[in-house]
Design brief:
248 residues; mainly beta; Thrombin, subunit H; seven-stranded antiparallel sheet; six-stranded antiparallel barrel; 2 helices; 32% strand; globular; disordered N terminus; protease; Trypsin_dom
């Protein structure tokens, strides 16, 4: 594994070098804060509404906490409506040391009305390739300034990098068949972007969620995402729904 440190810590706050999301993309991403035992709510990370009551995000950012505030319905933090949760599901083979199977689901106490936000479309088991993908996050805009959290959702573009090439950079323990690697265009994941959705450029379905990166943020290395298609069986089991049959 490369001697350069890999960022695996908890999120602090926007995509480095990204663009503000347009006003109509109010259902693209959720913002989540979590609470330790008897502590105030702190830290922020990103998630995706996949049913009217389930938020898909990374296990890394929800393990060990007890309550969650989930903001939805706007690309601006201050304009969001917030919903509560005290229930999460973490993949049973999640390995926090190497961020393997880094995926989890937050279950909200109440269903989200369609007027607030609509669930994102989950990918098919075998999604088509796209020349580029859009990814979103509520994270730092300056990797050297932990006070640089912007209040508007940001996005960037990425193209897929083979797992073989990614393993040559990160090593085989951090890059498994459940990961997806992307080379960004003048942007990059940073603290708080974990769990943020990556969307197929043409088909507009969810493809992956942000996971980790090589320090520093936007350092020229590929970013690592969780491949949602790889975990469809687990996801549909948690949300208690059948996997759609492709082609129907």
């Amino acid at each position: 594994m490369c001697s350069t440190p890999v960022k695996t810590g908890l999120p602090e706050s926007f995509i480095i070098g990204g663009n503000p999301a347009p006003d109509y993309e109010t259902s693209v991403a959720a913002i989540v804060s979590f609470q330790e035992h008897q502590a105030t709510f702190g830290f922020l990370f990103t998630g995706s509404l996949i049913t009217n009551q389930h938020i898909l995000t990374v296990a890394q950012a929800i393990q060990g906490y007890v309550n969650w505030h989930v903001g939805l319905g706007s690309i601006d933090r201050d304009a969001m409506q917030y919903f509560e949760s005290s229930t999460v599901h973490i993949h049973d083979q999640y390995n926090p040391q190497f961020l393997q199977n880094n995926i989890g689901i937050i279950v909200l106490h109440e269903a989200i009305p369609p007027i607030v936000a609509l669930p994102m479309t989950l990918p098919p088991e075998h999604p088509t390739l796209s020349p580029m993908y859009r990814y979103y996050g509520f994270g730092l805009t300056d990797p050297n300034d932990f006070g640089s959290a912007a209040y508007r959702l940001k996005y960037g573009f990425t193209s897929q990098v083979s797992l073989e090439e990614c393993r040559n950079i990160f090593g085989s323990l951090l890059i498994t068949n459940g990961t997806w690697c992307g080379q960004q265009f003048n942007t990059g994941l940073c603290h708080g972007d974990q769990g943020g959705p990556m969307i197929h450029f043409f088909d507009n379905h969810l493809v992956a969620i942000g996971s980790h990166w090589m320090d520093p943020c936007h350092g020229g290395f590929p970013d690592v995402f969780v491949n949602v298609s790889y975990y469809l069986s687990w996801i549909y089991q948690i949300i208690n729904a059948p996997i759609p049959v492709e082609g129907l």
